[in-house]
Amino acid sequence: MEERVARAMERCKAPPAFSDEEVAEQLRREALLRRERVKEHGVLAYGLPVVPSQNINKGFLLNTIKSVDSHNKRQEIDECWRKRELEHRVDDRSPSRHRSYRRSRSRSRERRRYSPSPKKESPKAKQDDERAFWAQRKAARTSAIIAELNDRACSIENAPNYDSESSSYEDIHAIKVDEEKESKKKKKEKKAKKHKKKKDKK
């Protein structure tokens, strides 16, 4: 196929470049031909095609161009495949290197498996710590109050200033829980009443 393409290329070599004088001469000749035709056919002469001075084999030229294009495409495809093969060869390691790579990977996996993971503190443990903190604070406050009293009788006059900040976390939490329970109870009662009314209507 390549030989045929080479032969075709040799046959249809590019025509030699014309100088400005030669082009001008050619145009003058065509103008004279047109003038003679106008004398014979009138204005219609401008619509008639000009007979070419040389016979051009268009079929041969088209076939040559097609064959050259297909040859170029085939060469591009072959080059792509060659590049791919080279990439695969570079990527393919020798068996010994592959084994060492696998060993290193397995070792890293084992290290990851046996490395101690950071312990996550459970929410229950956090809650217990918080309770212990507030219990200690309450105990300290109680001991301070007892020290202030010093075996005296407790009355409104000598009672310590017990502000809102000194109330313990547990007491506040207990009040909130009670309020939530009451609100839930009320909601349930409302739902039950609505359900009962709907049944009575039916």
Automatic annotation (TrEMBL):
Biased composition (Basic residues): 96-114, 184-202
Start-end of Basic and acidic residues biased regions: 118-132, 170-183
Stretches for region Disordered: 88-137, 151-202
Name assigned to this protein: Uncharacterized protein
